[in-house]
Amino acid sequence: MREALDVLIVGAGISGIAAGYYLERRCPGLRWQIVEARESIGGTWDLFRFPGVRSDSDMYTLGYRFRPWRGEEAIADGAAILQYLKDTAREFGIDKRIRFQQRVRQINWSSAQAHWTVDIEASEDQRYQLQCKFLFMCTGYYRYDRGYTPTWAGMDSFQGQIVHPQAWRSDLDYRDKRVVVIGSGATAVTLVPALASEAAQVTMLQRSPSYIVSLSARDEMALRLQARLPFWLGSKLIRWRLILRSMIQYHFARSKPDEARAAILEGVRSELGGDFDIERHFNPRYQPWDQRVCLAPDGDLFKAMRAGKVKVMTGRIQRFDEAGIVLESGERLPAELIVTATGLDMRILHGVRILVDDAEIELGATHSYKGVMYSGVPNLASAFGYTNASWTLRAELVCEYVCRLLKHMARRGYAQCTPRLPDDMQSAAFVDFTSGYVQRALPGLPKQGVRHPWKLYQNYLKDILMLRFGRLHDGALEWR
Length: 480
Description:
By secondary structure, the chain is α/β, with parallel strands linked by helices. Helices cover 30% and strands 23% of the residues.
């Protein structure tokens, strides 16, 4: 007999834990469970083990609204974030609802029976099915089994080690070695100064620069508010201060890109001095926030550069050889370890095969409804965070919205709700970033529309109005 649930949550990372919390408190009595493909809780923060792994959003907004961050560091390391997630799940009993090493392979919606049949793989030779009325996908936005690594000529001839940060091993020894990190995104900017503390020399090799800003790892204003106000009040003020600051900075960067660029480059110049070639190595071809701006807590990358432990090179790879990398300019970069910090393999809904009444749904042919559901797909929601702010901010709003939907359906006696795209809706890319990992994934991603409720605003205040307070009967959802 197949097990039947009201709600199945897929994924036990930041979004899945939030989903469990809100379901338990706002929809009491519902039968729900979390399935997680990995052996442990935490998602990204359990997967990434490379040196220096940390948040690039402040913890006052990356932490949950329902359990504010109490740590002294605003920019926390991966171990502290993972412990925070485990403590949260334990405190609210969410950990008791998680089944580990349960990988969802296929989901099939039956309109006649108004439920999903979920095919789950527990091991290579053990598969089973369960049924649920509503499916909540909290699987993140990229593949966990591999990162993206381009192929370069001569890679097989290199006599050292090549590793992607997503596959970092705890026994990987880089002490006193010459290391080349290929990439200039958030992972490279995090990894390079951490490696520099023990490696003989670290070179960050970038095809093109990224924007990098220095920010204190401790928020002194936040610490003063915590010390002088009741915790519940201080945490709210801290959170909203940082939310509004982030929104103002983003709006400034998008509305006045030249001024924003100049301000960022001036910050780099103050760290490295006027003799360094800022224009070549830190001035991107794109405008601020066409891609995510990288963070250097306490200027750690720049400190390592000033100390002579880190060198930044900008150029294209011609080939690998036995002892390192040869650039198109002819310059050689000797290395014993090469780290390919070349990006993620973006994937929505973790590549699960989706069928509606036995007809397969191609996610790239759908449109995102409120950034939560997908056109033509009933009773399925997914948590997707912000590109310009903390992931958790939007993940929690999505959880609240799903609870609103479920309570409304229960009150009205609806068995299903399905977003229906208007015939005249024009399409736009799901994410407007120019980053390589986004551009590579676009054909398989849903589209967004150009007007409400099909447009993604990447704006927390607008999403509060839409997801927490907006009308459920907005003409786009079909109720049955």
